[in-house]
Amino acid sequence: MSCEFYLPVRIIAGRDGVLQQAALFAETGKHAFIVTGNHSARENGALADVLQVLKANGQAYTLFDRVMSNPTVACVYEGAKEARECGADFVIAIGGGSPMDAAKSIAWLACQDIPQAEIFTTVPEGTILPFLCIPTTAGTGSEVTQYSVLLNDAQKSKSSVASPFLFAKAALLDGKYMRTLPQKSTVHTGLDALSHLVESILSKRATEISKAIAFRGLASFAPYLKRLNSTELTLKDRDILLEASCLGGAAIAQTSTTAVHLMGYPLTYFHQIDHGRANGLLLGAYLTLAEEKAPQAVRDVLDVLGFSAVSKLAEVIAGLLGEKDSISAAEAKEFAAASIKAPKCQSGIISLTEAEIEAIYRASLNIQ
Ligand code: NAP
Ligand code: FE
Question: Are 256 and 347 a contacting pair, CB within 8 Å?
Fold first, then answer.
């Protein structure tokens, strides 16, 4: 076996982990810059837990609660400026992928002067503020990845800042923060996790280690797929979904995502479709094609998920997502033309033509 595995994040999973890890917070710095979205960190209790620990430790903090879904470059520069001005020496991200991704770039840009126009062409290295991640959705796995995904207006899509320097110092996983997660968000973020696991397994860069992690995540996730929209998910269920999402993050930290994510980005950029929903919409048609081109690899995925054919899996996903979103025929063509130019397009084990990509868009969305 020849492969490399790198994941320097301390993962602490368990109930009340934040409250129990006062020493971790104390050793990380003196002044915390807390990065959150607009409201959920207050509602789900994560912010209160963090503040309790910081106050008990006598640590200073500044709250930056202005991260929007699908964070912008302007947002992370604004956060970095505030982090510098207040003299923060570490960052705490609380939220879904958006605050966690924003926090990574903030931790970087607070230490280094990078022109805005160069953010996506620079690979972060050197001094970056240490940061802790507290995920409150079970989907992105961002707490264990080295990617900071931001809107890229120049490309009219989303792009990642990626570097081994963007791994968190620690990730604190506690399903209790997801009790407030609405049904729709549970479905969308869950399908993001599924997409990470599947794309990682079907990636050219998959290794024995990344596959072991992704298949384990898939097995944890499998019993939940049909009831992601249940209103009766218990705390234990939330913990397991969070674990599956974290394993998906650990897997894509090795392989990156592939065509499904790439194709989902313009759906989010132009139609504000939630990230996980965009992946969920595309996954069925992508796997249908993958089943023709790489039947055994897809068979392995279906076996763990408990489906006899991609069509059955696609039916379940479609049922969770409800009515398909719409794009125009011209957009299906344009998005396919843009996707085929990106290296990520061919990073899966199946190669795709522009016509096939357009066909996936057409099969996945209502074409107006
Ligand atoms: P999100 O954009 O972080 O959050 C979506 C919504 O859910 C927000 O309104 C948020 O409210 C709310 N929310 C979060 N936690 C909640 C809770 N516990 N209870 C109630 N509401 C809650 O969504 P996400 O799907 O987790 O993250 C998507 C982003 O992650 C995208 O930008 C995507 O590109 C990125 N991503 C990154 C990676 C990576 O490896 N870095 C991988 C996949 C996806 P607030 O705004 O008030 O917090
Ligand atoms: Fe994702």
Answer: yes
C-alpha 66 – ligand 1 centre gap (Å): 13
Helix (H, G, I), strand (E, B) or coil at 115: coil
Mutate to test the pocket of ligand 1, among 64, 258, 275, 344 (most ligand atoms within 8 A of CB): 275
pLDDT tens per residue across span 52-105? 999 999 999 999 999 999 999 999 999 999 999 999 999 999 999 999 999 999
Give the ligand 1 atom nearest the CA of 252.
Answer: 40
Q: How far is CA 90 from the centre of its chain?
A: 22
- Which whole-number Å values give the CA distances from 170 to 222, 229, 268, in the listed order? 27, 30, 29
Cα of 57 to ligand 2 centre, how many Å? 35
Ligand lying nearest the CA atom of residue 238: 1
pLDDT tens digits, residue range 115-124? 999 999 999 9
Average pLDDT, the chain: 97
| Pairing state between β 170-173 and 10-13 | parallel
Q: Which residue has the CA at smallest separation from atom 17 of ligand 1?
A: 181
- pTM here is 0.98
pLDDT in tens, 48-59: 999 999 999 999
